[in-house]
Write a structure and sequence with these properties.
By secondary structure, this protein is an alpha+beta fold. The chain has 6 helices and 5 strands. The chain has a 5-stranded mixed beta sheet with strand order 1-2-3-4-5.
């Protein structure tokens, strides 16, 4: 990516899904996926039912579940010279009996060739602006403590450790 290349961040469209799946595949191919190791874009978008039979916007419309529509409302892609090179998938969650809404970053990914060029920061800022416009004041992202790259990104854009500590138990 040269200095003349323009990064454009825009809301996700159905036609972007193939590109998002491709970017996710490229990230996984280089093998440095830590936080999202067991979570794929296909799982998020297709509710664990795998890929649709045909990879096309029409088949995605039939395959996407009702739960995904809110996800698409809070998701963005980044393009360089018209090519999708990154994405962020967000959604709104309710805490404490639905009194408080928070923004959740489900997943963020930037193609390995475009990492460390400000694209992840721009994606997070675009999503933060969308949440702010909807009256949401808090954004959360779960990050594996070993994922130094993602930790560096979220700390760089202003995230900090929250008071809430999440404990997990494998059952």
């Amino acid at each position: 990516m040269s200095e003349q290349d323009k990064i454009e961040v825009r809301p996700i469209k159905l036609k972007d899904i193939d590109d998002i799946l491709s970017v996710d595949g490229e990230i996984r191919a280089v093998g440095n996926v830590i936080t999202y190791r067991n979570l794929t874009t296909e799982y998020i978008l297709f509710a664990g039912h795998g890929k649709p039979p045909q990879r096309s916007p029409a088949s995605y419309m039939r395959s996407l579940t009702g739960d995904v529509a809110p996800l698409l409302n809070f998701s963005f892609v980044a393009e360089v010279n018209g090519q999708v090179c990154g994405f962020i998938l967000g959604q709104v969650a309710r805490l404490r009996e639905g009194v408080t809404e928070i923004g959740i970053i489900q997943m963020i990914g930037v193609h390995p060739d475009y990492q460390r060029k400000g694209i992840g920061s721009k994606l997070i800022r675009a999503l933060a602006d969308k949440y702010r416009s909807e009256g949401i004041k808090v954004i959360r992202i779960g990050v594996d403590h070993r994922d130094k790259s993602l930790l560096g990104l979220v700390e760089h854009v202003g995230f900090g450790v929250d008071r809430l500590v999440v404990y997990s138990m494998i059952v």
